Structures are given as structure tokens and as C-alpha cells.
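Write out a sequence, fold above all:
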Amino acid sequence: MKNPSVTAALIGCGGIAQSQHLPNLSRAANIRLKTVCDVNVDAVAVARQTYGVPHGATQSGEVFADPEIDLVVVATKEDFQVPLTCAALAAGKHVYVEKPLASTPAECERVIAARAASGKLVHVGFNRRFAPACRDIARILQKRGGATNIYARISDAYWDWGKSNPP
């Protein structure tokens, strides 16, 4: 049974939200996904129905105004991530934002300043950063005293066991 300690909202109900964020947020024992938000009302409806999310919104301001929401997951197109992240921080919310955070160093500085002013946390998502194999590699490299030149190629299609690549 869930015993949520964090109440979250997801802004952006597109591809990465459907494949990663919604399934993971809905099964996390310590997170209550309260609200999904997207400009596409149909995407909001599908996310709510599929994952049993109690509230839906088409305006991010509704998310930021909700005092129950502790964490905002920003999974939108790149152009919207900096303003949404800064607005969430200004509203007193912690933020998990998809990569890339920003397009320019100035935009990154804007987020850094907003984070400092809010005292809240910001985490930028990176594929596989916390995957067990990647964490093992990081531990091995740390024991060696650092990395040398490493080239790795990971194909998601491999993990589909050929389902997406028929013979």
C-alpha cells in the first residue's frame, strides 16, 4: 500500500511522460501523483484515466497555485522547460526537469538563480544515470581513479527482444 510523502504534478503528457514518468510516478510508493497538466486536453484525459490521476489541468498556473503539490515534473518541449522550471521554483515547488534543461548558458543561469532564490531542489533527468549497470560502471571507474576514453552505445531496441525490429 502506498504511503505517499511527496505530492507531485506532471506538466507535459507527451511521449516521455507516457513511456516513463507516468508509469514510474504511479507506482512509486512515496509519491502521490495528484495532477497532470498539458495544453492538449485529450492527453490530460488519457493520462488521468490510464493512471488514476485525480486532477487534470491545461494551465500550468493551476499546478503552481496548488499548495498540496511539493514536486513538479517538467516533461515538455525544450522551449518551455526554463520558464516552467522557474515558475515552479518561484511557487515553492521542487522540480525534476527533463533534459536538456536549457539551450543557452544564460538560460541555465536563470534556473540556477531561481533555484537559489527558492531554496528548493532541481534535478535534471539524464537517461540511465541511475540504471544499475551505469552505477556499477561509475563505481568501477571511481576505484580506478577516474575514467579513460570509453565509448558505449546503448540501443533501446535491443531490450524489446526484437519486437520493434521484426526480421
